[in-house]
């Protein structure tokens, strides 16, 4: 029985193809019971790799069944047929994904970015409070409903965190996700704290929201990793971002995992909280990681009105101090994550030089 016939028997009228991979595809369908359109993810067990069938698919199904949050794509039904096909019926993101939205319309204004980022952060907090980690947070996995609200989707790399005898979360060793959104510890092949990994990805997403470009150029993973480990974040001057917004991004893109923000700290940050906005940069310096710096620790690139927000070309960066070459293990992990990454469709934005006093202070540099 073909997919259309299977879905028809379950009360769904199959529509157009929304996406297709080697062993899974996503179709739109009209639900006769719900009276609106849905998305149906169809997985063919006969074509799927063993690792996916034994590890990732069971995790995804278990987690989807337990999630219920207004900013997470709803799962209406999961069923399987005798010929080995799994059907996951989900809420449809009728306005597409955030990446396409930004590529079409350019960077978001801070007020719009704040609303969407708060929705996303609330969804991530909900997951983290359940000890669920996403591990593949990226703009392509943020769908938009009819009112352009964020809906977190695709829990294919998600898992429930385990705890040791003392109650502490155990480290993860599976290196998954897209290189452009991956934290330095993942790129290096270091066992990582998955909740802290999610925070780095949130920082990349917020940067893309307000800048319309990638914070790092992932065409050279080794070079990108070196810049990340130096805690260098460069913002386009043309976007006129507030100090509070830059501060939040800078503190999420913190290479030192012991100093990276937690999800509760993100939600309580002055940029995210409407009542707390308008604090002076001095107040940020007092509370933030740049307390010993005379200038903010991030860099701004030279303004260029001739560049399109989504067609910016990567530019040569300031030369960092010499760094030790990565070990063979780190090289292997970089290649692995790079191979798993997908084309993100937005260019990196690396300035030709940084502002005077803009690089992080020695105490901020992560070797």
UniProtKB/TrEMBL annotation:
Gene Ontology biological-process entries: cell differentiation; intracellular signal transduction; microtubule cytoskeleton organization; spermatogenesis
Keywords per UniProt: ATP-binding, Developmental protein, Differentiation, Kinase, Magnesium, Metal-binding, Nucleotide-binding, Phosphoprotein, Serine/threonine-protein kinase, Spermatogenesis, Transferase, Ubl conjugation
Entry-linked InterPro entries: Kinase-like_dom_sf, Prot_kinase_dom, Protein_kinase_ATP_BS, Ser/Thr_kinase_AS
Origin: domain of life: Eukaryota
Bias type Basic and acidic residues, positions: 303-326
Residues given in the record as ATP binding sites: 41
Domain Protein kinase: 12-272
Molecular functions per Gene Ontology: ATP binding; magnesium ion binding; tau-protein kinase activity
Family to which this protein belongs: Belongs to the protein kinase superfamily. CAMK Ser/Thr protein kinase family.
Name of the molecule in the record: non-specific serine/threonine protein kinase
Gene name for this UniProt entry: TSSK1B
């Amino acid at each position: 029985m073909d997919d259309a016939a299977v879905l028809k028997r379950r009360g769904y009228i199959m529509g157009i193809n929304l996406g297709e991979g080697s062993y899974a595809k996503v179709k739109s369908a009209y639900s006769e019971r719900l009276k609106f359109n849905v998305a149906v993810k169809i997985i063919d067990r006969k074509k799927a790799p063993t690792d996916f069938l034994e590890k990732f698919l069971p995790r995804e199904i278990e987690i989807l069944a337990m999630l219920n949050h207004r900013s997470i794509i709803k799962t209406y039904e999961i069923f399987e047929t005798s010929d080995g096909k799994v059907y996951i019926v989900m809420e449809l993101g009728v306005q597409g994904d955030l990446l396409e939205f930004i590529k079409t319309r350019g960077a978001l204004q801070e007020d719009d970015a704040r609303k969407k980022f708060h929705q996303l952060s609330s969804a991530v907090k909900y997951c983290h409070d359940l000890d669920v980690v996403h591990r593949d947070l990226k703009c392509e996995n943020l769908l938009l409903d009819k009112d352009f609200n964020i809906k977190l989707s695709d829990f294919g790399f998600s898992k429930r965190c385990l705890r040791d005898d003392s109650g502490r979360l155990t480290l993860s060793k599976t290196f998954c996700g897209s290189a452009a959104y991956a934290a330095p510890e993942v790129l290096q092949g270091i066992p990582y704290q998955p909740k802290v990994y999610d925070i780095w990805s949130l920082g990349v997403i917020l940067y893309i929201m307000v800048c319309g470009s990638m914070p790092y150029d992932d065409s050279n993973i080794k070079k990108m990793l070196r810049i990340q480990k130096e805690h260098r974040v460069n913002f386009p001057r043309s976007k006129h971002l507030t100090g509070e917004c830059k501060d939040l991004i800078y503190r999420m893109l913190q290479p030192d995992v012991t100093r990276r923000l937690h999800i509760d700290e993100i939600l309580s940050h002055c940029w995210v909280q409407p009542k707390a906005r308008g604090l002076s940069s001095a107040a940020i310096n007092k509370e933030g990681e740049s307390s010993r710096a005379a200038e903010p620790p991030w860099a701004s690139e030279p303004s260029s009105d001739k560049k399109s927000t989504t067609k910016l070309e990567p530019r040569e960066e300031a030369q960092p101090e010499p760094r030790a070459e990565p070990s063979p293990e780190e090289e292997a992990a970089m290649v692995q994550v790079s191979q798993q990454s997908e084309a993100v469709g937005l260019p990196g934005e690396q300035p030709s030089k940084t502002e005077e006093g803009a690089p992080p202070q020695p105490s901020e540099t992560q070797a």
